[in-house]
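Table S2 (text version). Query chain:
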Amino acid sequence: MCPVGVYSRLGSQHGFSRWVDYKTTGSSDNWVEFQADSNYDGLLSTRRFEINNHLFIITSTIKNVTSSIIKTSLGEHLYFNLDGLDTTDLRFNGQFLDEMFGKDSAASVDSGSSIHWRDFNGVIGIDFAKQKQLHLSADTDEPSLLGLSFWRRPGTDSICVEPTVGYVDSENKFASNLIDLVHQKAFKLITKITLLS
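Corresponding structure-token output:
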């Protein structure tokens, strides 16, 4: 996602990086890299996907190809199959969503509302009621702008857990958190998912 949050141009709140056409720029047995075939709103996007045994790494890079400063955000849309579980069955760092964010938080996520966790420190364990356990980490050039969102499309059997950098919501609460990307500067978000069981 680029940008993350309020956006009225190509791709809506998910931005151009979700819909743009990519070309392969490199690959091997365990990784492949793609680059957007053109820039949008002055940004060039590169995506790299790597699998090593139980580790999946996604590296998203945006680069400012204009002569101006671009204020933007960057994130990953990660969907995890619930395998018949409810959101209320999941633990994040050992806690249910209602324990982390208050009563009825899981029900709110199930209804299609998102919760944004501004105090995300870049590491979270996800426990699917002992059926499987994941370790998710996010690293970026500006760790102070890191956040994590939880969202679920009602009636589906998956939950979206989204590492973000520079997130902006509809009420503009996080407007000061945008990435300031200067001319020719590149910015990365590296997301690692490890299957523990």
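Notes on Table S2: The domain at 12-195 is CATH 2.70.98.10 (Beta-galactosidase; Chain A, domain 5). The mean pLDDT is 86.
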